[in-house]
Amino acid sequence: MEGMIETSETIDEFLARHSMDVERLIREAAAKEVMPRWRRLGEHDVDVKTGPHDLVTDADREAELFLTKELGALLPGSVVVGEEAVHADPSSYEAIQGDTPVWIVDPVDGTRQFVRGETGFCTLVALARRGVVHGSWTFAPAREQFATAVRGRGARLDGEPLRAGSPDPGRDLRVATSHPDYTTDAEKRALLGLWTDGVAPRPCGSAGLEYLAVARGESDAVAFSWEAAWDHAAGLLLVEEAGGTHLTRAGLPFTVRGGNTLPFTAARDEATARKVVELLSAAV
Question: Are 74 and 151 within one domain?
Fold first, then answer.
């Protein structure tokens, strides 16, 4: 079947041909399902999933359905792992472990911001196989920003190359951290290691936009304590291809397949990543 992926090499070929098609579909999903609902939600349009900060709207559901259909058709033989589908059927997350190419989708990352009518939300899509992320798309429609990355080919924001660079010497490291509601006691203790001289931690917003801030050099690092692949896959490749890196508290790269030692960091450069991991480990 045309478009079927058989090897990681043909994933690269697929991306060379179809990366712009993926971008077009993401823009279409936002135009049809997300932006018409932005700042127009009523109370009945917002549901709570696992807690007061874990919200879902019709924009999340309908955009994911659209992308699931269209991305699956674009790459026959692939599967889609989306946040809302996994909430309905947790076993569907297991597809990330297999050999089949997987689209990892967060239809509205930053739903709390979306519900409040703020601009800090985005759609995240990544294409992975065997735990390796090959393509990344981050679209913030309210800000008209579109970031992309292809493994080995660099990262771009609105067509311009992204370079994370390194923090300015002598300045406090700007680090976005997990929301306290989503951390265990052990993870809270680890994150407390960042409350020290030379670091300026703050709670994170949309994970996808926090990764974009690192890739742009606007933020120095993130320190996150959860593994949901839809929040991290696109952003981690974006940071990597912008010249940054990521490490778990065990000193290993984060993997979307799970089993990571948390918290973990993604940072503008290796020295920053190792500094953050050192602080996270010292407090445990």
Answer: yes
Residues in the chain predicted with pLDDT less than 70, given as ranges, are 1-9, 47, 49-54, 283-284
The label of the residue with tokens 């790459």 reads: 75
Q: Which residues are annotated as a binding site?
A: 83, 106, 109, 231
Going by C-beta distance under 8 Å and a sequence separation of 6 or more, which residues neighbour residue 57? 37, 41, 45, 46, 47, 108, 111, 114, 115
CATH number assigned to the domain comprising residue 13: 3.30.540.10
Whichever domain contains 183, its CATH number is: 3.40.190.80
Query: Whole-model pTM?
Result: 0.93
* Six token digits for residue 32: 């049809």
CA pair distance 211, 59, nearest whole angstrom: 22
Task: Give me the domain span that covers residue 57.
Answer: 8-161
Annotated binding site for Mg(2+): 83, 106, 109, 231
